[in-house]
Amino acid sequence: MFYYGSAARDVVFSCTLIVAFLIALLAVELAVPPDDPVTIITNPFSGQNAMNVIAAAKGNILGAGRWPWIAVAARSDDPDFRAKLKAAGALLLLPPITNACLRDLALLGT
Question: How many domains would you assign to the chain?
């Protein structure tokens, strides 16, 4: 049996949490039905506007977030819309239920 010191145990615990978070994000992204609107999140440090990403993918904007790197929801009749969003610079595509969470965070200023 290996003995881990407290620092090593903390690193292993942190890495486990990060991996679990990434798996949860992947599961959420894969769970979005193809015809539903999606919440668009772009890289906040790239200076890219989420509205421009939606426009480049030829989608319709249903709402905007408080920050320019979040568009609350977008919809398109194009079956390749999500692939076009990714190609245009979308970092994450989340289900519309996250719209309420993101809007609440924006209103709180966090």
Answer: 2
pLDDT digits (tens, 9 = 90+) for 32-82: 666 678 888 888 888 888 888 988 998 888 877 777 888 876 777 788 888
The residue ranges of DSSP E strands in the chain, in sequence order, are 38-42, 60-63, 70-75, 90-94
At residue 87, the pLDDT reads 93
* Domain identity same for 11 and 52: no
What is the span of the domain harbouring residue 54? 34-108
Sign of CA dihedral 44, 73, 86, 91: positive
Same structural domain, 66 and 100: yes
Which residue, among 110, 105, 108, 82, has the nearest Cα to 95 in the 3D structure?
82
